[in-house]
Amino acid sequence: MQGDGNILTLSKVSKEFPGVKALNNVDFTLRKGEVHALVGENGAGKSTLMKILSGAYSKDSGTIEFDGKEVEITSPKASEKMGISIIYQELNLIHRMSVAENIFLGRAPKKNGVIQWKKMYKNAKELFNSFDIEMDVSKFARDFSIAQQQIIEIIKAVSINAKVVIMDEPTSSLTDNETKILFRIIKSLKSKGIAVIFITHRLDEVFEISDRLTVLRDGCYIGTKDVKDITKSELIKMMIGRELKQQFPQRNIQIGEECFRVDHISDGNKIMDVSFCVRKGEVLGFAGLVGAGRTETMRLIFGADKKTNGKIFINNKEVHIKRPKQSVGKKIGFVTENRKEEGLFLRLPVRNNIVAVAIDKIKSLGVLNFKKEKYFSDKYVQELRINTPSINQKAVFLSGGNQQKVVLAKWLLSDSEIVILDEPTRGIDVGAKREIFEIINQLADQGKAIIFISSEMEEILGISDRILVMHEGKISGEVSKENFSERIITEYAFGGA
C-alpha cells in the first residue's frame, strides 16, 4: 500500500568537504510505503546523502522535513529515534551475541533492573513471525549467512518502529535466491507502510523492486522518475550524462603461449585438486556460485593461505610460493574482492597506495625518492583516469571506482605479468565498469595473463576469452569462446552439464 504523502522531503541540501563539493542543492522526496531507488555513479553523492539522513554527517545548508515537520538530524541516535534506520554494506551485528540480543541491544526488556530473557526471545520470535520468517533467535549472529544477517538487521529496524529503512547495496554479496528472499521482505515492509530507500548499482534490481528512482550526478540532483516511465538506457544516460558506449570494449588481441599453470592445488579442506593454465594476453574467466571456492583458490596461489598440495609453474618453471611477498617477486598481482580491507591503506594518500608494493622501484641508493614517487603516481592517475583532487588525497575519500583504479595502479607499477582480478567491478557504477574493462583489455594487449573472477554472468561472458566454472571447490567445467552460453555455465555452476 502506497501512502498519500511524503514521509521525507529534502530541499536544496548541500555538503562540502575540503576540495570536494559532495552535495550541491540536492532535492529528494520519499513517500510513505514506497521503495525509492537512489542511483548514480560512484562519487555522485549517494553515500553522503544517506550519512546526512543517518546523522553521521551534518548538512551545510538546506532543509529536511520528516513526517511533515522540519528537523535537524544531529546524531545517529537522533536519526534512529526519529524513525530512520540504515543498513550498511558492512553489517553492524555483534557476532558473539544472539539474534535476540542484537535486535534489542540497549533496549532489552527488564524487571527490577534484570533482563527478562524469555520475554526478549519471545518478542524477537514474534517479530520474525510477522514476516513469515523462521529464525532461531537464540543462536549467535555469526552462525548465519550474510543474507540472514541482513534480514536480522531489517527486523531490528522494524523493532525500533522505523518509518524509513535505508539499504546500501543490500544484494552485493547475495545469491539470486537470497536476493529473491530479500525482495519479498522489502515488499512486506511496503505493505506495512514502511518506506525503503534502495541504493544499488544493479540496474535490473531498480526496475524489479522500486516504485520511483532518483538520480544524482557529481553531487547534483538530476531528476526523479516513476520506474514504469523510464528505460534502462534512459536511466544510464541520466546517470553518466551521455550515451554509454558498448559496455564491453571490442577485443582483437593475439593470445600467446602458456605462461602460468597450476597443477592439482588443494588446501585439504575446501579446495580439491584444482588445475588450470593461462596464456599471455588471455582473459581467463572464473565463474561459479558464491562459495564455490574461486577466491579461496586464488588466495592459495598467491600465498595468502596455505596450500597442502599442488604445484605452480611460471613460463614452464616451477615456482615455490608460500607468502604474498614471494608472489609479488614472481610478478603476480592480486586485486582482492575486498579492496577496503585488503587492497588499500584507506588513511594514506593515493601516492602512498600506488607505490605500496613497488617500494624498491622508487628508491635511490636505498632511500625513498619522492620525485620518483610523484612521477609514478602522476603517471598512473593520468593513465587510468583516476578522479582525485591530487595524489595527496587520502584513499578513503575516493569513490569505489577510483579506489579500484588505485589498486590496479599498484599492481601495474609492480610490473605484474599475471594479474588476478577478484570481483573487480563489485560496488562500482556502470561508467567506471566500462573503464575497468578497457584497462583489462590494455593489460591483455600488453601480453599479461588475466584471471578474472566475477559473479555477474554478463561480465564473465563479455570480457573472457575462456571460462572455467567452479563448484564446491573443484573445476566442474571449461567453456571455450565459441560455446559461451549462460545456460551451460549455470549448469556447470550447479555441478554438472
Task: Describe what you observe in this structure.
This protein is of the alpha/beta class. Helix content is 33%, strand content 26%. It has 2 domains: 6-240, 3-Layer(aba) Sandwich (Rossmann fold), CATH 3.40.50; 258-493, Rossmann fold (3-Layer(aba) Sandwich), CATH 3.40.50.300. The protein has 17 helices and 24 strands. β1 and β2 (20-31) form a beta hairpin. The model has no long low-confidence stretch (mean pLDDT 89).
Give descriptors for this structure.
497 residues; Rossmann fold; 2 domains; six-stranded mixed β-sheet; 33% helix; 26% strand
Please describe the topology of this protein.
Blueprint (H helix, E strand, L loop, with lengths): L5 E12 L2 E12 L3 E5 L6 H8 L7 E6 L2 E3 L4 H7 L1 E4 L11 H5 L6 E2 L2 E2 L1 H13 L16 H14 L4 E5 L7 H16 L3 E5 L3 H7 L2 E6 L2 E7 L5 H9 L17 E9 L7 E6 L3 E6 L5 H9 L6 E6 L2 E3 L4 H6 L2 E4 L3 H5 L6 H5 L8 E2 L2 E2 L1 H14 L16 H14 L4 E5 L7 H16 L3 E5 L3 H7 L2 E6 L2 E7 L5 H8 L4
Parallel strand pairs: 3-10, 3-11, 6-9, 9-10, 15-22, 15-23, 18-21, 21-22
Antiparallel strand pairs: 1-2, 1-4, 4-5, 7-8, 11-12, 13-14, 13-16, 16-17, 19-20, 23-24
Helix pairs in contact: 13-14
